[in-house]
Amino acid sequence: MGKKYEATRKLVDRDKRYTLAEAVELLPKLKFTKFDETIDVAARLGVNPKHADQMIRSSCALPHGTGKSLRVVVFAKGERANEAREAGADFVGAEDLVDRVLKENWLDFDSAIATPDMMGLVGRLGRILGPRNLMPNPKVGTVTMDVARAVREIKAGRIEFRTEKTGIVHAPVGKMSFGPDKLRENIMSLLDTLQRLKPSTAKGKYFKSISLSSTMGPSVRLDTNEVAALLER
């Protein structure tokens, strides 16, 4: 690790579990880079993703967005294609876009939306889009007839997430420049969504651990008991 990272890591008490308010106040003090770093949440949940009914995959609309301008592609035809363009989609098409991805390995976008009737065609892209978490999926609202709404929500800062093999959910919740209040509201929005998605078959403590970190900085662990109390309010 570099000297600057080591210096900031000393500011974090590794034995302490911080309240959410303390954590978002501490994050700016850990910044040593010149760019506006992204803040990420890593939540380890008491679920077993090997069981289909405990695999969590969904999306969440952050009240203050992510601070990133996202490029959205929409696979649609006719009226739905026009609606997508009017809503601000960056790329709209059908067979032409599918061919572009297949033949040119074109991936110049951050999120993909498709109407249900297009999934037979878009399914050919599974091996390319799947590993990059770009494949449209009805569970996260990216396979829909209401493409205009989906485009607007993604542009406004809707994020997608799913549990990894170890039961951890990673998700971006904003930029360092947002400040404590906006970051806290975004984080609570994500955690509230995760709480509502708790599988009925999940036993024991649901939030095993929650950590916040910036792009380059050390992680700050939250007090999961305090988070649970906040979510019950």
Summarize the structure in words:
There is one protein chain. By secondary structure, this protein is an alpha/beta fold. The chain has helices at 3-9, 20-26, 78-87, 95-104, 119-122, 126-129, 147-156, 180-196, 224-232; strands spanning 38-45, 57-61, 72-75, 91-93, 111-114, 158-162, 168-175, 207-214, 220-221. Helix 3 (78-87) links the parallel strand 3 and strand 4 (91-93). Helix 2 crosses helix 8 and helix 3 runs parallel beside helix 7. The longest helix has 17 residues, at 180-196. The N and C termini lie far apart (40 Å). This is Large ribosomal subunit protein uL1. Part of the 50S ribosomal subunit.
Can you tell me the overall shape? globular
H and E string? HHEEEHEHEHHHEEHEEH
How many DSSP E strands?
A: 9
> What's the number of helices?
9
The amount of helix comes to 25-40%
Major sheet attributes: 4 strands, antiparallel
* SSE-based structural type: alpha/beta
Give the CA-CA distance, first to last residue: 40 Å
Low-confidence residue ranges: none
**Mind telling me the C-alpha Rg?**
19 Å
Mean pLDDT: 94
Strand content: 15-25%
The neighbouring-strand order within the major sheet is 7-1-8-9
